[in-house]
Design a protein that fits this description.
about 190 residues; SH3 type barrels; OB fold (Dihydrolipoamide Acetyltransferase, E2P); five-stranded antiparallel sheet; about 0% helix
């Protein structure tokens, strides 16, 4: 048994009789009253997410997990087909599980799949990915003050903010978690 203060993103716990994956955690110290842990949990059997509070010293039962390296291969209807690059074993995954990562995935994107009790619980991308800019409007003349950003569209269809000098067709590195431009990617 662990305590709620030890919960981290990606842990699996038994909560209300079901196995849940911790999606986010935060330590909250209100001005009045005891500190608590605010955690967003996703129930593996129903797929629903909920926000829950735990007393900092409350006991929680952590469930063992395993991880595998997979790659995104292609879409099969609404399902995403992931492939193990070593064994070429395929696995169909629902759009619900892929919701957090789909905006930054292209063919052969490496992923980390986390399994709890043999069930796929969560899929994560690397911290940053390289994507091609599919549409970048020209900067307006005179719009060259420092740190001026413009909206650009990436090859996956997602729109992010990038500096004025980024042009259509360039490859850029994107911070997946913050959905931000990092730098131009070298060829």
């Amino acid at each position: 048994m662990a305590i709620a203060n030890d919960l981290r993103r990606g842990n699996a716990i038994k909560f209300n009789g079901a196995v849940c994956v911790v999606m986010e955690t935060g330590h909250v110290k209100p001005g009045k009253g005891p500190a608590y842990i605010q955690a967003k949990l996703r129930n593996l059997s129903t797929g629903k997410s909920s926000d829950n509070r735990f007393n900092s010293s409350e006991s929680v039962e952590i469930v063992p997990m395993t991880t595998r390296k997979l790659e995104f291969s292609y879409m099969d209807g609404d399902d995403y087909v992931l492939v193990d690059p070593d064994t070429y074993e395929q696995e169909n995954v629902t759009a619900e599980i892929m919701a957090e990562v789909k905006d930054f995935m292209t063919e052969n994107t490496p992923l980390t799949a986390t399994y709890v009790d043999g069930t796929l619980a969560m899929v994560e991308l690397p911290a940053n990915v390289v994507l091609t800019v599919s549409d970048a409007p020209e900067g307006v003349k005179g719009d060259s003050a420092s740190n001026v950003m413009k909206p650009i569209t990436l090859e996956t269809g997602v729109v992010i903010q990038a500096p004025l000098f980024i042009k259509t067709g360039e490859k850029i590195k994107v911070d997946v978690k913050n959905r931000k431009y990092l730098e131009r990617a070298g060829e």
